[in-house]
Amino acid sequence: MINRFVFRALSLASVLVLGGYGSTLYADETKSEITLASTTSTQNSGLFDYLLPLFKEQTGIEVHVVAVGTGAALKLARNGDADVLMVHHKTSEETFVSEGYGVERFDVMYNDFVLVGPDNDPSGVKETETIVDALGEIKAKQAIFLSRGDDSGTNKRELELWKANGDNPKTASGSWYRETGSGMGATLNTAVAMQGYTLSDRATWISYKNKQNMEILFEGDERLFNQYGVIVVNPEKFPHVKEEAAKIFVNWLLSEEGQSTIASYKVSGQQLFIPDAK
Amino acid sequence: MNDLWQAFFKAISLVVTLDDKLLEIVFLSLRLSLSAVGIALLIALPFGAVLALTKFPGRRILIVIINVFMGLPPVVVGLFVYLLLSRSGPFGVFGLLFTPSAMIIAQVILVVPIVTAITRQVLEELHHEYDELLRSLDVPWYRKVTALVWDARFSLSTAALAGFGRAISEVGAVMIVGGNIDHLTRVMTTAIALEARKGDLVMALALGLVLLAVALGINLFAYSITETVKRRHQ
């Protein structure tokens, strides 16, 4: 015998469990949605939360953002698991297109990388002239440096900068050079806790909320330029790619309106991305 | 300490103001985890019963494997399900990756071993206890099984709750196969991970407290049901 209380409880549970499945199972037919593989820096900075509702309002297209590192985003798109790619490592993006996975690559916006660290600056990077010298000082003083170590765009750039000195910091991995294998925010959390230096994109740094005594210690070198590109995944390679909606999205980003929307996104009064579509 | 207090007050204010976004995330978490546990029970109860009450070659090794799978790292399950559901994978044509369905699949894989193992343990012990009685009664095997399961129902509800705990607290697998997409696949745990990454530790911890409160609610609910039913039968 089932008493009324149990019966009510069970029916509530079944409503919870079964309710709302239709929308997810038949999503493709009812409304236009695309999947965008992008980087943690664009998500953590809040740019998409600002941009995408406006885009949806105008076009009705819902953009699903999967935010991972640049390396992982490229891999997702290579498996055909995204319709659009927006990342920040130009050479990898060009390879992606030349290998036939993407249709065409467009510049969409840029910002720059900054070297952050504890405000007492144990390696004296504030006094250096170039980012390469700054990293050289960190190595010379064996100050703690946190690397993303996750094949992200930021990680790729950081390794290129070390290489410019002829250094391979990975030989010191585990001592003063520490690879977190995590996203930018998690790496910043670690850097704060260890009082170490790390390379961050400016957008993530500005919107990051746990700065404590950390600050930007080096910026402005042209080698720290950080370009974001956008690519529609090639529908010839993956027939399920929603080419039409994906193109509308990319064209909107590159349009005057999309560009001015990107420029108007500010956190604590500071502009995070500078649009530069041609 | 200050951050801890702030998180606590933030959690209370989130709950009191019935923040829309929070409700959406909480309901999705509940929907996914309850679905996963429901499906897992359908698989694991019969499976556990078979393991407990029958003898067949390979049974012991199967029991050991199930026990090992209880400790399966969620990230591994996530990667496995990702590779299956990826457009380049065997089930890619269904387009399930980055949907709530993909997350349920991953959670079912995580929950089934726990429920199976507990079910087997409980039924085996009970069977041992009742063996002579059941034999003397000379009833068909399926009557035995239903009698045992019915008698063990309160212990088995603990198995379901353990499975639910695993499902709702898990982050590694649902992050990979769900993608933590806002308004679509963002659940409590992936939202907590995201806030922590943004350095908003207070918000992350506040969401964690809300998750605890939700789990507490579910457990109280289950407990009160079993108590009510128990009293009826006494």
TrEMBL record, chain A:
Where's the PBP domain?
Answer: 29-257
- Alphabetized Pfam families for the sequence: PBP_like_2
Q: Which SUPFAM superfamilies match?
A: Periplasmic binding protein-like II
Q: What is this protein called?
A: Sulfate transporter
Q: Which InterPro entries match?
A: ABC-Tungstate_binding, PBP_domain
Q: Which organism is it from?
A: Kiloniella spongiae
UniProtKB/TrEMBL annotation, chain B:
SUPFAM superfamilies, A to Z: MetI-like
Q: Which domain of life is it from?
A: Bacteria
Q: Which InterPro entries match?
A: ABC_perm_TupB-like (IPR049783), MetI-like (IPR000515), MetI-like_sf (IPR035906)
Q: Which Pfam families match?
A: BPD_transp_1 (PF00528)
Q: CDD domains annotated for this entry? A: TM_PBP2
Q: GO terms for biological process? A: transmembrane transport
Q: Which residues cross the membrane?
A: 32-54, 61-85, 91-118, 201-225
Provide the alphabetized UniProt keywords. Membrane, Transmembrane, Transmembrane helix, Transport
Its cellular-component GO annotations read: plasma membrane
Is the keyword Transmembrane assigned to this protein?
yes
- PROSITE patterns, from UniProt? ABC_TM1 (PS50928)
Q: Where in the cell is it found?
A: Cell membrane
User: Any keyword Membrane?
Assistant: yes
List, for all copies, the residue spans of the domain called ABC transmembrane type-1.
26-222
Which topology term describes how it sits in the membrane? Multi-pass membrane protein
Query: Which family is this protein grouped under?
Result: Belongs to the binding-protein-dependent transport system permease family.
Write down what this protein is called: ABC transporter permease
Origin organism lineage: Bacteria, Pseudomonadati, Pseudomonadota, Alphaproteobacteria, Rhodospirillales
